[in-house]
Amino acid sequence: MNIENASEKYLKPLLAIIDGEHNKKTFEKYISGLMLENKNFSTLEIKGKTEEKELSQLYYFLEQTINWRKFSYIQAKAVLADDNPKDFYLLLDATPIKQKYAENRITKTSFVNISELKNVPNNEIVGLYLSNGAKYIPLEFKLWASAKVTEPEDYKKKTNQFIELFQYYGMNGIPVKRAFFDNGFASMFNLNWLMDNSYTFITRLKSNKIVYIDGERHILSELDLNEGQSVICELKGMHKDVKILRFCHQNEEYYIATNELEITDADLKQGYLDRWGVEVFHREAKQQLGLEKMLVTEFQKTVNRKKIPALLTC
């Protein structure tokens, strides 16, 4: 990454929303370390020798409350002004994050010891991104923590976080209303909500979904659709028809659904395959900018730590 170009494009606009000259100076050093992809750079400290002791305390900056949403949408609107908005779509995905302390989990209110609990999943980042296949702009993030470690009043399923992400998105004036996501978010409530709010979607379905064709009930996998064959049908729990395509990719069977009934089978397949770009985005953020090494123990630091690499990789 060219540090001068990156600084001009990302650092200066970001500094504009940071309060206080000391904080701006501290954060500039922090974010520059990420831009340089320094393998020794850590959120807790900078390992090795440094001339400035202040750098070893940079992670305290992550306690700040930063208006990430404001920055994200300013950035998105600037990109859409330069590109054709019709080429863009929304991607929603979740990715697990490994934490330094395997015996603990980060939640919104605490840092929970899980040494006496069994099979507690890793925290996950649930994110909403704007993309045209070449650019990935992070818009919204939620941190998901298992119900085993979260207070009942704070716990939310990932499918519920899905709706919240789109609700925040809808308040910010972005015209893109086409969403791609995997079957983990394809609840009937979510799909109906999207259609009721004028979104189109492309999503994967589980093969055991129940569908109706001419009023007759079928299990999706029992329709015996050929490779590359599609059907327009009613999905149980939905109040509008969808188009479902069956295809195989990398030795795996896929059933892909959309409420864009006029879309060609080829475009439907490609639309779902375009979703895979977000997996590359996550991998680069983890491997190159340390998103997977969440060396923090507090919720606000976690939010800031995941936002910075995400903005730098777009």
Q: Strand portion, in percent?
A: 15-25%
Mean pLDDT: 80
Shape: globular
Number of helices: 8
**Which ranges are low-confidence, i.e. pLDDT below 50, for 5 or more consecutive residues?**
39-57
**Global Rg:** 21 Å
Largest sheet, if any? 10 strands, mixed
**Which structural class is indicated by helix and strand composition?**
alpha+beta
Give the helices and strands as they follow along the chain. Answer: HHHEEEEEHEHEEEEEEHHH
What is the fold's blueprint, element by element?
Elements: H1 3-15, H2 21-35, H3 68-82, E1 89-96, E2 104-106, E3 111-113, E4 124-131, E5 136-144, H4 158-170, E6 178-181, H5 188-196, E7 200-205, E8 210-213, E9 216-219, E10 230-235, E11 241-249, E12 252-258, H6 265-274, H7 277-289, H8 299-313
Parallel strand pairs: 1-6, 6-7
Antiparallel strand pairs: 1-4, 2-3, 4-5, 7-12, 8-9, 8-10, 10-11, 11-12
Care to describe what's here?
By secondary structure, the protein is α+β, with helices and mostly antiparallel strands. It is 33% helix and 23% strand. The protein contains eight helices and twelve strands. It has helices at 3-15, 21-35, 68-82, 158-170, 188-196, 265-274, 277-289, 299-313; strands at 89-96, 104-106, 111-113, 124-131, 136-144, 178-181, 200-205, 210-213, 216-219, 230-235, 241-249, 252-258. It has a ten-stranded mixed beta sheet, sandwiched between helices. The two termini are 12 Å apart. 31% of the residues are buried.
List the main descriptive attributes of the protein structure presented here.
single chain, ten-stranded mixed β-sheet, 314 residues, two-stranded antiparallel ribbon, 8 helices, alpha+beta
